[in-house]
Task: inverse folding
RNA sequence: GACCCCAUCGUCUAGUCAGGCCUAGGACACUGGGUUUUCAUCCCAGCAACACGGGUUCGAAUCCCGUUGGGGUCACCA
């Protein structure tokens, strides 16, 4: 069977990482099966959908190199067909018009009383439900209203669909049958007659449930007596998500619906909709959510929840793509760093996790570092150049000097935004960590060593080997243990305790700069 | 509240469907050591988990029941 999947985001702002992972899983599945990956823009929420958001969406897809097939489908242009499908259901008696609350007469989908034509509904036995005696039971084609009993014995008003109560009988406290639906069903259904029964104490009915087999979670089911008929066309004549979504999936011949597991409840309803429109039901795969550091769903305050933030933080698209596939999926062995082709060939639903996953930025950074290390030198240089020229200290930089710095720093750069930390190569505006200065510079012997070094450097021929032996000489002649002058020197010259090798740094900075900074340190720091 | 779903190191996960190969493996992070006379890298070692309680079984992370915890959904939003 040909595989046809779709990514169907609502363009209402930034792209969330959970969202883009859904796109990735869809894309991977399609490519794995040589199938078709479609993008559908679900822009029916005219209030919140914006062109800007649509532009962001495609920019992000492009950044991650996720290509799509065939033409885009804009949901807002499909309204006519959506409404035709609503008409079909109205004609089949699978939907009815009803003024439910304000907003005029809407079209509601009727959870089917009659299973004919519905393969995803099954009986699951006789059930009893205790109800609050003081509240009447109201039965109409629009649903059944009654009151459950809270733990404290209070009535809890409930309204669910009629279809949940096949073979309903209502008994009072004396076990007397007050109502049998088989006597009333015809007039309820055909003449829209409503019944009201007082003093009921329990409901007795055949429970039915809607079920489907999820490719990730296995068989999922939900009793009809916990569902309600739902609006598919608003009072103003516009289609609701459920209708539009299903109608478009039919139109696009979608074979596998891969979406977040927050849609599971919708899927119970959607399977019914597919059948009411006389269409085949696609396969479903519900992937788990991504949650924040606190283990909660991401909210606006969390940060790093948008793909753009990851990009702005300097992560590579390859690394982000790779990392996101590993959130909620694993290849089954210990492979982690995997390229596109390998991911495409290994991806499957069997190995998708059933529970939510947390982002671990440190792991992403580590993976990103592995990708960074593989970037060819000239590509790295070009990227670095772009980033540096956008930084405040990055104007008018000598390109051969930049090249020297970049070569030196590539192996210790895990994300491109760390290039900001290269400032000490380009500006005399160093920032010193006071506690590091105190700890490393203001200790006995350092000042004298610096002064000696300063004097030596003035006349030193400036190459790597000579710099190294000069520093070694100063270290030893000052009675400092080998290597122990390096960190103080690093702090004095760069302000930082980490970075490239100190001898290389000194060489790249050049004699004038080093002497200038050493002077400053001798006068102000040590 | 009702319904649905989920549950292995701090985190991502392997092992669960087909019970024994699990003294529960890997990765990130963390800690210690080594290499680099410095930083990063790299190498080695360590720390660290089957949510809890019952059952079935010769044997349970794995199967069953219950409990707890977490999440989702209950809109004329998508």
Result:
């Amino acid at each position: 069977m040909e595989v046809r999947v779709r990514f169907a985001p609502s363009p209402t702002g930034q792209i969330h990482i959970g969202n883009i992972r859904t796109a990735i899983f869809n894309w991977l599945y399609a490519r794995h099966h040589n199938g078709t990956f479609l993008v559908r823009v679900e822009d029916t929420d005219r209030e919140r959908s914006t062109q800007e958001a649509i532009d962001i969406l495609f920019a992000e897809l492009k950044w991650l190199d996720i290509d799509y097939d065939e033409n885009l489908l804009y949901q807002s242009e499909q309204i006519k067909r959506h409404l035709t499908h609503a008409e079909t259901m109205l004609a089949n008696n699978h939907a009815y018009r009803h003024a439910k609350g304000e907003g005029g007469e809407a079209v509601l989908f009727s959870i089917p009383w009659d299973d004919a034509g519905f393969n995803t509904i099954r009986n699951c036995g006789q059930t009893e439900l205790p109800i609050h005696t003081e509240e009447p039971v109201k039965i109409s084609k629009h649903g059944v209203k009654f009151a459950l009993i809270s733990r404290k014995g209070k009535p809890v008003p409930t309204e669910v669909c009629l279809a949940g109560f096949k073979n309903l009988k209502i008994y009072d406290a004396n076990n007397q049958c007050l109502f049998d639906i088989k006597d009333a069903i015809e007039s309820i259904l055909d003449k829209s007659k409503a019944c009201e029964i007082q003093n009921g104490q329990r409901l007795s009915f055949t429970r039915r449930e809607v079920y489907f087999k999820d490719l990730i979670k296995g068989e999922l089911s939900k009793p009809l007596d916990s569902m309600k008929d739902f609006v598919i066309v608003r009072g103003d004549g516009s289609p609701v998500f459920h209708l539009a979504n299903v109608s478009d999936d039919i139109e696009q011949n979608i074979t596998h619906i891969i979406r977040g597991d927050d849609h599971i409840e919708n899927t119970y309803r959607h399977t019914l909709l597919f059948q009411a429109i006389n269409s085949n039901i696609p396969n479903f795969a519900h992937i788990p959510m991504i949650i924040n550091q606190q283990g909660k769903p991401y909210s606006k305050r969390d940060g790093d929840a948008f793909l753009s933030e990851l990009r702005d933080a300097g992560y590579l698209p390859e690394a982000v793509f790779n990392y996101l596939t590993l959130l909620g999926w694993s290849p089954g062995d210990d492979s982690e760093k995997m390229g596109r082709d390998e991911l495409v060939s290994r991806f499957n639903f069997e190995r998708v996790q059933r529970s939510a996953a947390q982002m671990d930025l440190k792991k992403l950074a580590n993976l990103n570092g592995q990708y960074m290390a593989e970037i060819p030198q000239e590509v790295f240089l070009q990227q670095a150049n772009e980033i540096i020229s956008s930084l405040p200290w990055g104007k008018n930089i000598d390109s051969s000097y930049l090249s020297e710095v970049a070569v030196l720093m590539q192996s210790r750069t895990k994300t491109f935004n760390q290039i900001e930390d290269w400032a000490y190569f380009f500006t005399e505006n160093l920032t010193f960590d006071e506690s590091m200065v105190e700890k490393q510079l203001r200790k006995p012997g350092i000042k004298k060593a610096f002064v000696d070094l300063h004097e030596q450097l003035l006349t030193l021929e400036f190459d790597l080997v000579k710099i190294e032996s000069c520093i070694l000489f100063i270290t030893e002649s000052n009675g400092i243990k080998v290597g122990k002058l390096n960190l103080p020197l690093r702090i004095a010259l760069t302000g930082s305790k980490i970075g490239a090798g100190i001898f290389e740094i000194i060489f790249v900075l050049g004699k004038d700069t080093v002497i200038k900074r050493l002077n400053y340190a001798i006068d102000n720091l040590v």
